[in-house]
Design a protein that fits this description.
Length: 267
C-alpha cells in the first residue's frame, strides 16, 4: 500500500464545506469522485480539518491510501485535468504510512480578510472579504494580543463538534496588508482550533474595532468560558485556511513532513 499526501486550494463559495454531506456539494466529495474515477474504485480521503460552507483554502492537506499497483499515477496532472475549476492540486508526495493529514499536524495558519470601506466593495472581492467598514486599528492590534498563548477558548467555540477539552494555544496573531488599500488581513497561527473559533475571534475583534468594547474585553470573555458573552460569528467568506504544518517547521514556510518523496516533479 502507498500513502499519498496532497495539498489543495479551493474557492469555498459554491461548496457546502469540506466534509461529505448527503445531497450537497462538498470538497471532500469532489476529490473522492475524481480519485475514484482515476483508480476505478472508491477511495476515502482524509483532510487536515473541516472548513465550513463558504470558507476557502490555499493549503488544505489531504491523504489517502492505495494499493501500490494503483499509486504510480502523475496525480497532480491527472487530478487537475478532471477536477472542477474551483479546486486545484498544488503539491503531491508519497509519505510514510504513519502520516495522517489531521492527527500528524502540529499547527495551522488561517487568514481572515476585512474590507474597511463602507461606501463600496469591489465585486471581485465580494466572496473573499467581510465588508465590516472602518475600524479602530490600534484597538484591534491591542486586542489581538490577548488571544496569544494557552487559554480555554470555550467562549469562542460554536456547538456541533464534541471535543475532549477547549484549551488551545495561539502562537501568533498579526495584522497584514490586504490585496488593496481597502483591506487588512488578520493572520492567526495555533496548535489547534475549535469549531468556528477563528471566525468567533474575528467577530470579537471587529466589535472592538467598531468601539463597542475595549481591547481588554477579550480577556474577560476568555475567562468567562461562556459563548453567550462573545459577539456574533464573523461571516465565512473572509476566512481562508492558509497553511498546515507537519514535523519540525522551517523558517519561512510549512514543513511538508518526514519520509516523503515527490510525485510528478512537484516541489
Amino acid at each position: 500500500m502507498k500513502r499519498i499526501k496532497i495539498t489543495i486550494a479551493y474557492d469555498g463559495t459554491k461548496f457546502c464545506g469540506w466534509q461529505i454531506q448527503p445531497g450537497v456539494r462538498t470538497v471532500q466529495n469532489e476529490l473522492e469522485k475524481a480519485i475514484s474515477r482515476i483508480t476505478g474504485a472508491p477511495v476515502r480521503v482524509y483532510g487536515s480539518g473541516r472548513t465550513d460552507s463558504g470558507v476557502h483554502a490555499q493549503g488544505q492537506v489531504v491523504h489517502f491510501t492505495l494499493p501500490e499497483s494503483r499509486a504510480e499515477v502523475p496525480w497532480q496532472r491527472a487530478l487537475n485535468a478532471i477536477m472542477p475549476d474551483d479546486v486545484t492540486v498544488l503539491d503531491v508526495a508519497y509519505v510514510d504510512e504513519s502520516f495522517h493529514a489531521q492527527f500528524s499536524s502540529i499547527r495551522k495558519t488561517y487568514v481572515y480578510t476585512l474590507w474597511l470601506e463602507n461606501k463600496f466593495l469591489f465585486p471581485c472581492r465580494r466572496n473573499y472579504v467581510w465588508g465590516c467598514g472602518p475600524l479602530d486599528i490600534d484597538a484591534l492590534d491591542t486586542a489581538m494580543k490577548y488571544f496569544l498563548g494557552e487559554h480555554d477558548f470555550a467562549s469562542f467555540q460554536n456547538v456541533g463538534t464534541p471535543v475532549k477539552n477547549t484549551i488551545r494555544t495561539i502562537l501568533d496573531f498579526v495584522r497584514l496588508p490586504g490585496e488593496n488599500e481597502h483591506e487588512i488581513k488578520l493572520q492567526v497561527c495555533g496548535t489547534g482550533f475549535l469549531k468556528q473559533m477563528v471566525r468567533n475571534m474575528v467577530g470579537c475583534l471587529v466589535d472592538i474595532g467598531r468601539g463597542k468594547a475595549e481591547p481588554g474585553f477579550v480577556r474577560s470573555v476568555l475567562e468567562a468560558k461562556d459563548r453567550t458573552l462573545a459577539p456574533a460569528t464573523a461571516p465565512p467568506q473572509g476566512l481562508c485556511l492558509s497553511h498546515v504544518y507537519y514535523g519540525e517547521p522551517k523558517s519561512g514556510g510549512p514543513e511538508s513532513g518526514r519520509n516523503e518523496s515527490r510525485i510528478d516533479g512537484t516541489v
